Amino acid sequence: MMKLKALAQFAPETGDRHDLPEMDALTESDALQEAQLLAVELDALAGSVSILLDLRVSLHFGAVDTAMIVARGVRGFHWNCPGRQPGLTAWSIGSSEVRNDPNGFRMSLSMWPSPGAQLEFVAASAEFLVGKVEGLSEAPPDFAEGDTALVRAGVPHWDSMFDLVAWSSIGQLPPGRPA
Asked: What is the pTM for the complete model shown?
């Protein structure tokens, strides 16, 4: 087990795939339907973006509860979200689109509640890492209750202890990036 934040440094060989239990979010559009976006971290120095997802209510993942997407050699990143009332929002993914071409790997996530949010990135490579966070319940907390501390305690976060079960990767590692 290791902290999710430390796992962002993990870099499998590109094109590597290790025992993905269900779908591969890097090659199959809409694999992330109904997963909840929890956090995004941009490391401008390293040119990477890490995306943390709760899979407990996703349509396509039952054997694992948490996922992280790490994009490396990021060339573009965009987050668009309407103004919201104060409080926490469970951003559920309605659609995930992926494309890998000579210009890089592209992912676009469209989320609800309405009016929804949009997250997009273009990168040289990406990893999809799935597993289980220690101590999570079977279902996410009720965001409508308004108890911020209770909600945050009931979802994966960067300091959560994580058991990596499977991963996949796509694209080419940026020059100078250790494999």
From this structure: 0.91
Token pair for 80:
């668009």
Residue-by-residue pLDDT tens, the chain, 179 positions: 999 999 887 765 555 567 776 899 999 999 999 999 999 999 999 999 999 999 999 999 989 999 999 999 999 999 999 887 777 888 999 999 999 999 999 999 999 988 899 999 999 999 999 999 999 999 999 888 768 999 999 999 999 999 999 999 898 765 554 44
Q: Which amino acid is at 164?
A: L
Cα–Cα dist 76/34, whole Å: 24
Q: Determine the Cα–Cα distance for residues 160 and 52; give it in Å rounded to an integer.
A: 11
Residues β-bridged to residue 79: 119
Place of tokens 């996410």: 140
The domain locations on the chain are 2-171
